[in-house]
Design a protein that fits this description.
Elements: H1 3-9, H2 15-31, E1 37-41, H3 47-55, E2 60-62, H4 68-80, E3 112-118, H5 126-139, E4 145-150, E5 152-153, H6 161-173, E6 180-181, H7 182-191, E7 194-202, E8 206-213
Bound molecules: S-adenosylmethionine.
């Protein structure tokens, strides 16, 4: 088998990305800055990156993913659907400091002006939220945007019965996982110089959540 074919075979598919990508893109068009590089954290399969980059051609898109097999999928998607503004993925785990983009000698054509993080906070330990916010504080410029997408509790309450069942399933799989309370997430953000500016209800009981760096 040729190396190229192996790369193509690394592509993974997450059906939810096809359902949520257009509603997310509609919000990104409104909230992302007009210039710079968007650092995507937890890119997963890479399907979002290859969908968003050509549709946000005024920005550069930098995917990242800590899991080697998922990262191979991102690389394979980037290879299959290349875009001038789409960069190869970084190995970035929010809990490992410094992030690769902070390392000496790391260079980008355009500075990072936004961070996008889709469906990670409920499928990782609570500390990852703290690491994400600390990293956003270090990496984002003043007025830089942190965009989160996923299910959230509001004031400690689930927003839908389906989220309650999803939360129970997550905790069953890993006791450290679970749907986060948006107010608790915002409190952590505040400690890291990030101000909540928008909470936008999305299809299937999810939210787009936007923070801006002080
Ligand atoms: C449910 S998937 C979401 C992937 C993609 N954003 C999407 O919506 O299809 C959760 C992702 O979070 C990533 N993740 C988990 N812990 C992480 C961490 N500490 N730092 C960065 N990414 C992490 C996983 O590797 C996985 O790709």
């Amino acid at each position: 088998m040729s190396a190229e074919l192996q790369m193509v075979d690394s592509r993974r598919y997450a059906p939810a990305t096809e359902r949520n990508r257009q509603p997310i893109l509609d919000v990104l068009h409104k909230v992302l800055p007009n210039t710079g590089t968007v650092l995507e954290i937890a890119s997963g399969t890479g399907e979002h990156a290859t969908f968003f980059a050509p549709r946000l051609s005024h920005l550069h898109w930098l995917p990242s993913e800590p899991d080697p097999e998922s990262r191979a999928s991102v690389t394979a998607w980037v290879k299959a659907l290349p875009s001038d503004n789409l960069i190869d993925p970084l190995a970035l785990d929010v809990s490992q400091q410094p992030w690769p983009v902070e390392q000496e000698g790391f260079k980008l054509a355009q500075p990072i002006t936004a961070i996008v993080n889709i469906n990670m906070l409920h499928i990782s330990a609570w500390e990852m939220c703290q690491h994400l916010m600390a990293g956003a504080q270090r990496v984002l410029p003043s007025d830089g945007v942190l965009y989160l997408y996923g299910p959230f509790k509001r004031e400690g309450q689930q927003t839908a019965p389906s989220n309650e069942a999803f939360d129970a399933m997550l905790r069953d799989r890993n006791p450290n996982w679970g749907i986060r309370d948006l107010e608790a997430v915002s409190q952590v953000a505040r400690k890291h110089a990030l101000t909540l500016t928008d909470v936008i209800p999305m299809p299937a009981n999810n939210f787009s959540v936007v923070f801006r760096r002080d």
